[in-house]
Automatic annotation (TrEMBL):
GO terms for molecular function: transmembrane transporter activity. Residues 21-243 form the MacB-like periplasmic core domain. One of its GO terms (cellular component) is plasma membrane. Residues 281-398 form the ABC3 transporter permease C-terminal domain. This is Peptide ABC transporter permease. Belongs to the ABC-4 integral membrane protein family. The keyword Methyltransferase does not apply. It is a multi-pass membrane protein.
Amino acid sequence: MRLTDILSSATRTLTAHATRSWLTLLAVALGSAAVVVLSALGEGARQYVLDEFSGLGTQLLIVMPGRNETSGGAPPLLGETPRDLTLHDALALLRSPLIERVAPLSAGEAPVSYRSLEREVTILGTTADFLEVRHLSLAAGRFLSPADPEQAAPTAVIGQTLAEALFGNQSPIGQRLRIGDRRFRVIGLLQASGVSLGSNLADSAIIPVSAAQALFDNPSLFRILVQASGPAALDAAADDIRRIIRERHEGEDDVTVITQDALLGTFDRILSALTLAVVGIAAISLLVAGVLIMNVMLVSVAQRTAEVGLLKALGAREQDLVQLFLTEALLLAGAGALSGIALAYLGIYAVNLQLNLQLTGFQLQVPLWAPLAAGLVSVSSGLLFGLLPALRAARLDPVVALSGR
């Protein structure tokens, strides 16, 4: 049989049983769409997290109290800390020529009020270098003074959401508000930057680190953000940080230093593995669709026994019959895969359009391998599960087949 004859015969057979063919095609399409959509979701999440970490700034190191070896967990779930990190520890790091800026952080929750309005927000205590280390920008006013960090000046820089909640359309610059039991003067307004690593700077207030330590009655630091002098200096700067802290903590190596690249690499590996896991689960649905194709083809063989017998009597070889039935299976699998991939792209486009309208910053992104993998698994399952019915049809005895048994 010629290839054109095989394709023509397979197409006529599938259209003759339209309902059965459409249901099988739908199963393959849904499986293929699931693979593409879930991979796009995983890739979008991976890229979103990486962008968020990159938004923290460049050449960044994060110093955290305690060592992750203490309890075997990842920071900040650390073990017992022999010593707290202090403001003097942070300032001592500037002795290293490999360290350009240091931004100590003291953090907590406190009510912020203006006249009769009050809002519970995150309070960050830091220094003037925080603006450069985190690559933030101001919409109005100025940032914290670069004066002595140990001076608890009653000044604050607030985010856009907090400013709108307390002051409405009025400019917050120069206004006085109350944080906890203390009064502060607003000197700056942050440019909108959204949520970054769980910290919504738009709904927070930034005050001098000494003021935050006094407000929370806690002299220890939450963490220290360090900007190295260059990308090539990250590892050496991390060694200097450990050395300086060790000297100040009586020989105790009791801090965890995380480089930004290591953090990005860890999250990249975790999210990539999760993406592959959920895509693998979705691919199982394509195997189920392959079983459905096999069942449909077995039914087709049973219904076309006389036709198979006639073809063999007219000189069709076993190879021709195998090709005929495999072509039907491949047409179902291929058409289903293409339909599913097209459906997935339409759905992803609609979701991304909605996300753009909501300005979330998160987008579904289809990796190049996803449609290829969906198509390959679909066609492979069609071949695999179409082989048994094809072999059964090819091995039918022509005399028995013509008798309809």
